[in-house]
Request: fold
Amino acid sequence: MSDILPPPTGQALIWRDRANALIAEGLVDGRALVEGQRVKAVAEETFECRSPIDGRVLTAVARGRQADIDLAVGSARRAFDDGRWRAQPPAARKRVLQRFAELLIQHKDELALLETLDMGKPIQHALAVDVPAAARCIAWYAEAIDKVYGEIAPTGDNALALIQREPVGVVGAIVPWNYPMIMAAWKIGPALATGNSVVLKPSEKSPLSALRLAELALKAGLPEGVFNVVPGFGSEAGEALALHLDVDALGFTGSTRVGRKMLEYAGRSNLKRVFNELGGKSAFVVFDDSDALERAAQTVAGSIFFNQGESCNAPSRLLVHDSIADEFVKQVVAQTPAYQPGDPLDPSTVMGALVDDGQLRTVLGYIEAGHKEGAQCVAGGTQARAETGGFYVTPTVFDGVRNDMLIAREEIFGPVLSVIRFKDEAEAVALTNQSSYGLQASVWSSHIDRAHRVARALRAGTVHVNQYDEDDITVPFGGVKQSGNGRDKSLHALDKYTELKTTWIRID
Ligand code: NAD
Reply:
């Protein structure tokens, strides 16, 4: 940590003290969790886990490789085959997952601190969003365990055809660093609820909360071996898991580049089912007939700068009608002072640190590309708080962007908004759909016909109308085109982790 950091005050001081205590008490533990035990990597290799807040080393993390994945998958397979979880009565499994969710809430401060220290998000968001959302997800899938029924097909009098859902077996889950706990919960919630065993590979950039989740699951009564976590690098532990012949399904969330590899790994190994939840370049489309422009400006700023812009569904392209563009861009820029990056451990901070130095370089590289391609930077565009030793960027807005520019085509995954102007509805639809991604979109119009027409025409997994931030565990989340093919959340996610089994019974 830098010596020249101004001393934190008030609440920030309290959270910094708590963070120091967490580290001192050894609760920041980077060992893997396999067969119910915290273990070192087989080769006893580790890698450093640094905090993006100030660059300090938090702990050494087990560097999992093939041998570690073999052990974890073996443990998951044994647990599945002997039925220690899958064969328990539904009400018993429900109770375990409910206790697991309760434990997440009981450990809210600790889990939120781990998340903030590990990936730089503001503590207020880790407390108010990440931990409660992960707990709600687990609790919701716990309830689904004894609420989802099978079917009997209408086949006639001389036969009975039962259609049931069976767990697939061993689920491999590979997740990114931007919402480490929520992404893990979105996989393990439905996978465990349906009776599977899981091997989770968290991102090497944010492995800590997933490891703690697995400990809490054990404490809640989940049998050993059912939920294993192996940290490590993508090309080592991740590849070994995705290629493993004894993994039956792979739930992947991450970049489109790596999502392609998941499909290859499945093809090269056992044709395991692959569900990809990938990147986005979502459009926020504002028509001149909207009577909620002030709220639209607040919403687009709040959404693109939330989580430092490191959200797959961040509305990173703002499409605005020519006739209102100058005034609307002014309103968006007027929001940016509220999002200046601050100390993530200070509860008043709303934008924290980017996940690491590499992400900082990537975001600054895109900002440079925006300048070079002729877009006008009307807010931000600079590194901030470099003296802390952490990785911060100011909220950035580029006006005069064309849809063919790099900053309009590629996912930046940082607090950078690209403003593109359009002349009419047809052009707005065409520009929105001219993207290799199709995760989300938002339409702002006060005319119901237009809102419906445009929502229908947009190729995105989710379209919001006159809002952007609605989110609920009951509603599926996922994209089309190169944003992926899977759906997390809702009862639809259960489909990914179950096989449809039909049983024909003859009736004489
Ligand atoms: P990433 O693709 O680099 O890594 C994701 C995970 O894959 C990590 O655990 C990583 O270690 C692993 N991995 C990397 N290379 C691998 C390989 N060759 N084999 C196996 N595993 C490998 O993505 P990231 O930088 O961690 O996360 C950011 C991306 O995730 C963004 O594109 C974002 O849009 C996307 N994302 C999507 C959603 C969604 O629901 N659609 C949600 C959150 C994030």
Remarks:
- The radius of gyration is 23 Å.
